Amino acid sequence: MVRSLWTAATGMIAQQTNLDTIANNLANVNTTGYKTEVNEFKSLLYQTIQTKTTSANGERKPSSAQVGLGVRNASISSVFKQGPLLSSEIDTNFAIDGKGFFALRSADGRTYYTRNGNFKFTLSTNGGNMLATSDGEPILDRDGQPLILSSNYIISNVTVTADGTLCYPDELNNPQPIRKANGNAYQIGLWQFQNPNGLEKIANSRFAVTDASGPVINEFTNNNVQKSSVIQGYLEGSNVNVADEMVNMITTQRAYEFNSKAITASDEMLQQANNLRR
What we know:
Elements: H1 2-27, E1 37-43, E2 46-50, E3 65-68, E4 71-78, E5 85-87, E6 94-97, E7 102-105, E8 111-114, E9 119-123, E10 129-133, E11 148-149, E12 159-160, E13 166-169, E14 175-177, E15 191-192, E16 200-202, E17 206-208, E18 217-218, E19 229-232, E20 234-236, H2 242-274
Antiparallel strand pairs: 1-4, 2-3, 5-20, 6-19, 7-8, 8-17, 9-10, 10-11, 12-13, 13-14, 15-18, 16-17
């Protein structure tokens, strides 16, 4: 009976974690660039009660008798499926169509990656206009450097092409790439990973590189990856499906209830066993 109490308890703990994940998905249903998270479970060790070679008369049995000891959470994976593209009236809002990520330089000096393209141009400490997050953290260009334009440019006239190149109208009002002193165009960096699910999740819809994610892949310098597109004037919405999450929540609630009933039944059976001596 003690085995069933523990097994049902592991089921309740696992379903509570599952509900926590579902609640987080629903809480972020309107979060820009958020990716749905999914719980994955695996069974715990099995206890062998009788091996398949054991029988009353010593004959070989075709199967053994093993009792499972419950369940545990194996992982919580993000579903990196494309979210809906939401129109925005702000020219410095960008959505990514593809597998790429934007890169930003945090205040702690580390580089993080995000699908949230809600950016702003802000005055940099060294002069010029710097493309940054709403918290003022610089967005990195294709060379991994902060993207800073000269103060001579009127920011409202800056446009961005599908490959992330920043353009400015010439005398004939035709957009021309804005170039650095070395002749390279200013281009918003796009980065990919061999295993996005291996990224470490950080607050504010950010991800950090880990050994599991593999090294960062620069789309500009690597021709072996499918290129992503930058769409100006749009944001990528959350890919959470509310209907699916509600169904999952009901299923999780029922599973939690069934496990609690198993604990109640085990407790009642133990009480009956204790009453046999009375």
